[in-house]
């Protein structure tokens, strides 16, 4: 089974439930994640990765997963490159609210994936629809 | 290439079920006909022949069940893959700083889920 070590001590499972003895028919892990996630769109599963959900469509959920991955990459790059004397400049509350209102809707999530769908269609010659 | 993970969508005709990718199939080569359908109440597979695994049937089913449809919590789809950056970031125990426009879409939208449970 796939146990991967990041650094030396943090085990990461690819299939956490499958690997938990006796838990295959146990739905409590899903209930636990749902309860903690509440109404949010991203669940950050510690030592595992992220779950993204779509309120209206799978395109939306796929976009949040992709965009979250890219945003984690940007965060890691920024954290890695920042010099001790550099400030951490973050968006202000009003900028965050207006940007989220514009870019962070379920509809924009759906729309943002459209170009990726077009690309998928092109490279698979439409075979994914078969 | 990200080839592990599960993506699912609620069946719009029978919303008490959802479609999900089966076990052991490449995302890049996945076809519509490869998908299997599972019941939301208990995760049991009701359509399809390929095996699916418990991460899909148990976790996805309960997310759909608990969050329901419509309103503030409702969901129609779940996407989960193992991207290297989100995987690394998940070990920090924190959420994203609002350092980019894209990050703003995740403001107040990130929940930290500890490893394991009880």
SSE layout and pairing:
The complex is a heterodimer of chains A (about 130) and B (about 120).
Chain A (H helix, E strand, L loop, with lengths): L2 E4 L3 E4 L2 H4 L8 H10 L4 E4 L3 E6 L3 H24 L11 H11 L2 H7 L1 H10 L7
Antiparallel strand pairs in A: 1-2, 3-4
Helix pairs in contact in A: 3-5
Chain B lengths: L4 E6 L6 E4 L15 E4 L5 E3 L6 H14 L9 E5 L2 H6 L11 H4 L5 E4 L5
Antiparallel strand pairs in B: 1-2, 1-5, 2-3, 3-4
Written account of the structure:
The complex is a heterodimer of chains A (130) and B (118). With 130 residues, chain A is an alpha+beta fold. Chain A has helices at 16-19, 28-37, 58-81, 93-103, 106-112, 114-123, and strands at 3-6, 10-13, 42-45, 49-54. Chain A is 51% helix and 14% strand. A two-stranded antiparallel sheet of chain A has the order 1-2. A two-stranded antiparallel sheet of chain A has the order 3-4. Chain B has 118 residues and is an alpha+beta fold. Chain B has one domain (5-93): L-fuculose-1-phosphate Aldolase, CATH 3.40.225. Chain B has a 5-stranded antiparallel β-sheet, covered by helices on one side. In chain B, a hairpin with a 6-residue loop joins strand 1 (5-10) and strand 2. The termini of chain B are far apart. Chains A and B meet through helix 1, helix 2, strand 3, strand 4 and helix 3 of A and strand 1, helix 1, strand 5, helix 2 and helix 3 of B. Strand 4 (49-54) of chain A pairs antiparallel with strand 5 (77-81) of chain B.
